[in-house]
Amino acid sequence: MSFNGSGTFSLTYSWVQDAAQSIPITDSRMDAQFTDIANGLSNCITRDGQSPATANLPMGGFNHTNVGLGTSSTHYTRLDQVQKNALTWAGTAGGTADAITVTTSPTFATLYPGQEIDFISSGANTGATTINPNSIGATAVKKYGTTALSAGDIPSGALVKVKFDGTNFQLINVAVSYGTMASQSASSVNITGGSITGITDLAVADGGTGASSASGARTSLGLVIGTDVQAYNANLAAVAGLTTASNKLEYWTGSGTAALTDFTAAARSLLDDTSTSAMKTTLGITDPGLVLISAGSASDDATFDITSGMDGTYEEYVIKGINIVPATTSQQLMMRTSTDGGSSFDAGGSDYSWAYVMRDTAGTDNSNQDSADTYIELAASMLAGTGEGGMFEIRIAHPAATSLYKLITWNGVFASSTGTRVVIGGARRLATADIDAVRFLMSSGNIESGEFKLYGVKKS
Questions:
Q1: What is the Cα–Cα distance from 234 to 228, expressed in whole angstroms?
Q2: How many distinct helices (H) and strands (E) make up the chain?
Q3: Measuring CA to CA, which residue among 154, 135, 159 is closest to residue 143?
Q4: What is the edge-to-edge ordering of all strands in the sheet holding 447-457?
Q5: Residue pair 32/40 in contact by the 8 Å Cβ criterion
């Protein structure tokens, strides 16, 4: 019966069963038994290699162990030969730098497409190069398909890999020449010589400019001169070279040169005005030579006092009364002075002497005066009511002096029962004490409305 096809060997006869059945052992049955045994042994693989396998041998998940090194193309390849790259490794090359010879172990006698050889070069090639493996014959080495090697494509002492394409060896690891180049770290190099040519433009996303010209690079980077960025300008460069600071303003000192000067808050408050009138207000000047000191309004007040700003700063002061209206009609506008900052106002019977003349639109002249009075009368018969009122300008000379009688002059215009009246007058404070405050009041009733402004007259 021999093997049953599943690897199990069964004898043709069982002598035990034959004896139990009283079957005699005959020569024919013995011959058949031993013939089956012989056939079974002939179907086994012998240890000394006398008989080859006649079919595929399933290993059942087991290995052939302790096998010898593969030395022929029909041998097993042992795993360590693959791990050591022994099948393609040729060690250090012989021959010359341009006519290289190599020997592999195991050797091979024929080149096949896709076959690789690895070796250490013994010199830098100087041009076209060949490799002769295992003395098969010299075969040209190319790069990038059909291009012959250039000098230095194989550096001296380099690990070289070539692959046979059916006609030539292809150099897989072509050396790249960067001129004089030194590696600075594992991730960067420093090129100090040579040039890089013939490469595809490096995209902006990869750190390049996406262009091969300066103008193209500026377009790719959004830096077109005159569109995206300002072209170089000497004036702009001069301004950029200044060291800025607070309250400073640049100005030109010449063509393409600039400097800084002070630009204070006070100066800025003047420059932001949109008219000369606004500038005068900012500077406190409403008329040539006058400096506004203070301003205030009366609103149904018994008196209006100016108690500050009248000192020795100016030799002459001007008080303007604008639209002064009495609460009660036909009243006199009066004035008193103070020597104690307005704590009290002089009202003695011989403190003041005054006089004025008036002329109205009816052609009537009028005048009034007093050589010793408790007040200075500025105007008489002023009308009350909407649209009425008067305007006056009063001048006081040397109010801070203590050795002079104080002289006061005024002029004005106001509405009266006989029409519009014009008044011109003068007065004298009958003492040499200083004047540092003034009070305005009506002969009866309050000051309904009006504005009073104090100015200093600039010294010449």
A1: 19
A2: 7, 27
A3: 154
A4: 290-301, 447-457, 316-326, 390-397, 406-416, 419-429, 352-360, 365-373
A5: no
- Beta-carbon contacts of residue 320 (< 8 Å; ≥ 6 apart): 391, 392, 393, 394, 452, 453, 455
Q: How many CB atoms lie within 10 A of CB 216?
A: 13
Residue 359's CB is within 10 A of a number of other CB atoms, namely 16
3-state DSSP assignment of residue 343: coil
Asked whether the beta carbons of 437 and 307 are under 8 A apart, the reply is: yes
Q: How many residues does the chain have?
A: 460
| Backbone φ, ψ for residue 295 (5° rounding) | -150, 145
Pairing of strands 99-102, 129-133: parallel
Q: Which of 453, 457, 458 is nearest to 320 (CA)?
A: 453
Distances (CA, A) of 229 to 58, 205, 210, 217, 459: 77, 21, 19, 14, 56
Phi first, then psi, for residue 39 (nearest 5°) are -65, -40
Task: Quickly count: other Cβ atoms within 10 Å of residue 374's Cβ.
Answer: 14
In angstroms, the CA 364 to CA 380 distance is: 14
Q: Give CA–CA dist 13/34, Å, rounded.
A: 10
Average pLDDT over residues 174-194: 60
Cα separation, 204 vs 202, whole angstroms: 7
At residue 5 the predicted structure's pLDDT band, cuts being 50, 70 and 90, is: confident
pLDDT tens-digit series, residues 264-292: 988 888 888 888 778 877 887 655 689 99
CA 180 to chain centre: 37
Question: How far is the CA of 297 from the CAs of 67, 101, 420, 440, 450, in angstroms?
Answer: 122, 116, 23, 12, 6
Give 446's strand partners: none
Contact call for residues 97 and 125 (beta carbons, < 8 A): yes
Those residues whose C-beta lies under 8 Å from the C-beta of residue 349, and which sit 6 or more positions away, are 372, 373, 374
Judge whether 310 and 456 are in contact, CB under 8 Å. no
| Residue 336 CA to its chain's centroid (Å) | 68
* SS3 category, 55: coil
Report the pLDDT value the prediction gives residue 312, as an integer from 0 to 100: 87
Residue the block writes with tokens 């609460």 = 327
Task: Tell whether the torsion through CA atoms of 69, 75, 81 and 83 is positive or negative.
Answer: negative
Token pair recorded at residue 22: 């009283």
DSSP state of 206: G
Question: Any residues with CB less than 8 A from the CB of 21 and at least 6 apart, and which?
Answer: none
Amino acid at 332: Q
> If you average pLDDT over residues 287-306, what whole number do you get?
91
